[in-house]
Design brief:
About 15% of the residues lie in helices and about 30% in strands. It is built from 3 helices and 17 strands. The protein is globular and about 80 Å long.
């Protein structure tokens, strides 16, 4: 092989390196960003994949020192306008590898609708709203009933149950139908209210019992339906759907 061909080969190799390896290396630094949660202000570490996508990597050390336990955590769908597409992350050959551990060790961790991949190892309850996740956590996962069979087929060994509370964004968006999902024992109040959804050009005006938004759900007094058992003593699944009103 002559020098000219060797030079071309090296140039091509460098081009491939810049296309596939360098983007991963560029995302290696972990950035800290203050976000607002229903519990107050918390901080998370995230890694930037590109100008449009990032992954949540875990809580900052400062946050760990200040919060020993939270009963629930809502992960952000966007950070600084960048879509969060993974929880936990793994970069390329020359990048670092990290797994999200959710600190707070909360009873419930709510996964945003933007997530495509979960790399979590905690034995917590994870609330996953839409059928687009490519991987599940090792803990108990709750998904909407309409996606339950698809998840079971895709992840046969995962711990998956039906969420019996779903929050429907209530406008034409079939890919991201649900803003959030949750699970409670029948007859109980809904204790955790998810962050308000957003829609360009509209103002969110609460959660309602029907798509027409006639009867507003009262989180202080309204309860899930009472427990029903079948002839064999098994719980009969009952879904409570709440619909966003937009004005």
């Amino acid at each position: 092989m002559n020098r000219k061909n060797i030079f071309k080969l090296i140039t091509y190799a460098l081009f491939l390196f810049s296309c596939f390896i360098m983007p991963a290396c560029e995302g290696t630094p972990v950035y800290e960003q203050t976000m607002k949660d229903n519990n107050g202000v918390w901080e998370c570490q995230y890694i930037l994949y590109s100008k449009t996508e990032c992954a949540v990597g875990g809580w900052t050390d400062e946050y760990n020192l200040q919060h020993d336990y939270l009963s629930y955590v809502f992960l952000p769908s966007h950070i600084n306008g960048v879509k969060v597409v993974e929880v936990g992350y793994h970069l390329g050959l020359l990048g670092e590898e990290k797994v999200y551990h959710g600190h707070a060790r909360g009873d419930k961790i709510f996964i945003p609708y933007t997530i495509k991949m979960l790399r979590i190892t905690n034995d917590n309850n994870y609330m996953i709203p839409n059928q687009q996740v490519q991987g599940l956590a090792s803990g108990q996962n709750y998904v909407p009933k309409i996606y339950f069979n698809d998840y079971r087929a895709q992840f046969p060994v995962a711990l998956i149950e039906c969420a019996n509370v779903v929050y429907d964004i209530n406008y034409l968006n079939e890919e991201y139908k649900y803003h959030s999902v949750d699970y409670y024992e029948y007859g109980n109040l809904i204790e955790i209210i998810p962050p308000n959804p957003e829609r360009i050009g509209y103002t969110f005006s609460g959660w309602y019992k029907e798509p027409e938004c006639i009867t507003k759900w009262n989180f202080e007094t309204d309860t899930l339906p009472e427990l029903i058992l079948d002839d064999e003593g098994n719980k009969v699944f009952q879904e409570t759907a709440l619909y966003a009103k937009w004005i």
